[in-house]
Design brief:
Layout (H helix, E strand, L loop, with lengths): L1 E2 L4 E2 L5 E5 L2 E10 L5 E9 L3 E8 L7 H25 L19 H9 L1 H16 L5 E2 L1
Antiparallel strand pairs: 1-7, 2-3, 3-4, 4-5, 5-6
Amino acid sequence: MKLHDPFLISSRLLPAIKVGDATISMDTEGYDDEGRLIYHYYIDHADFEYENTDLKSGVGGDDLVSGFTSLLSFLSHDAEHYRYLYLHHPVLLNKSEDESEDYCFDSPSVVEWAYQNSDEIDLLAFELEEAAKQGKVLIEY
């Protein structure tokens, strides 16, 4: 496998991107019953580790770059929602996990980290989307 900027190999020996002081790495887990590719992703930070297989391919792609692009989009959503609550309803930031259905991620640590790194997340998402539009191959198999 050959990776091109902004990708690197993580300590998990998977394709990854660096966002702030965290590394997001991803692999695939096969296909679900509907034929959608299942992504297994990890967010490794000094203060927390998060992993999940809740991300699946959709319309427009089923490769790792598409998976990273989708994941960054969901992180951006949670960062924006956190920002809105922080500015307009700070008391709601302390809701329990059961009451935080407006977030894509069930980890308050991930959501707060996404908020703190939202500019970099948005920039990376834009970079991956532009590369796709230009037909650039960022991960070669």
